[in-house]
Amino acid sequence: MDKLFTSYPLGDITLNNRVVMAPMTRSRARAGDTADELTAKYYQQRASAGLIITEGAQISVQGQGYLFTPGIYNDEQVKGWEKTTRAVHAAGGRIYLQLWHVGRISHTSLQQDGQLPVSAVAVRAENSTCYARDEQGNAGPVPVSSPRALTPAEISAVVQDYVNAAKNAIRAGFDGVEIHAANGYLLEQFINGGLNTRTDEYGGLQHENRLRFVLEVTDAVSQAIGADKTGIRLAPFGRLFDMHAFPGEEETWLLLAKKLSSRSLAYVHLSDQQTLGEQAIPAGFIEKFRAAYDGTLIIAGGFDKALAESYLQQGKADLIAFGRPYIANPDLVERMANGWPLSEVNRATMYGGSEEGYTDYPAYQELA
């Protein structure tokens, strides 16, 4: 049997296979930024994945950068997500919730009372858009607003927002959470030495200072719900949303790998952004990260069955995450296991809307 389809122990649960459904924004939350029955149906259809990682759920109003994305910071949102966890567990699946704060990739129209978004520093992300309302009130892509820098006291408050969101996720029935520290969002805005020029303990030339925030979040969430229920997503050498190269970039990521290794997390999840039109993780870096991080490693980014199996056989990763193929193939595990052809995604219905392009993709056996 291919290793991809063998079981795997993850924290206090066992996954049925090593296929992970990667987190993907679908922008279909309803009133109050709440997941609903349609969300539950979407994830239940994909429950044969060894592990589902949901789309990012904002941990606060401040953390939102896109309209119609679900939150995890109030009781109604918890009740909404309960429908999803019950549905996935009833189908035999396992599911983690991704905790999301976009930082500067937001717009004043999304913020409480029209406040500025926040970041490590007061520097706007050039050539970047979020999904908000324009001056006429129409929903669509708009240039992000200029942010303000968080104070140390405010950073502590955001850490608590992550903790509250993680506790809410467990209340909603999730098997664990994934801290989103990738793709140019808040935590990566602190990690990136090309952006973070703070002069306090949370920034500057020292790697340890720029890693302080993400490690504080990781430690606080782990203490609140258990390290074995806490994962984290990183995008080493990521360039999304105006992230730039900086001196000591590889050293920063490998130091973070070493520090995370001592924390006995459920997993670390690396996102290779080549399928998003950005540069790939440099050759040889995965092996260096693997050597520095002693724990379960997930990798996402452009995998098919053959490449996934190759990575597992070589020991480069323990689990492989698939993103876009899961949109049009709810039975992706079965299709790969049986050699059935994959359906193509309709890009026009990837974001927003209702059932079309969301829950109406049939399984292969339905097509047959």
Structure in words:
InterPro entries: Aldolase_TIM, OxRdtase_FMN_N, Oye-like. It comes from Pantoea nemavictus. By secondary structure, the protein is of the alpha/beta class. 32% of the residues lie in helices and 17% in strands. The protein has eleven helices and 14 strands. The chain has helices spanning 37-45, 75-90, 152-171, 186-191, 207-225, 249-261, 285-292, 305-314, 325-328, 332-338, 364-367; strands at 8-10, 13-15, 19-21, 51-58, 95-100, 118-119, 129-133, 139-143, 148-149, 176-181, 230-234, 267-271, 297-300, 319-322. The strands form four sheets. It has an eight-stranded parallel beta barrel, surrounded by four helices. A two-stranded antiparallel ribbon has the order 1-2. A hairpin with a 2-residue loop joins strand 1 (8-10) and strand 2 (13-15). Helix 3 (152-171) packs parallel to helix 5 (207-225). It is globular, with a radius of gyration of 19 Å. It starts with 7 loop residues before the first strand and ends with a helix. The mean pLDDT is 95.
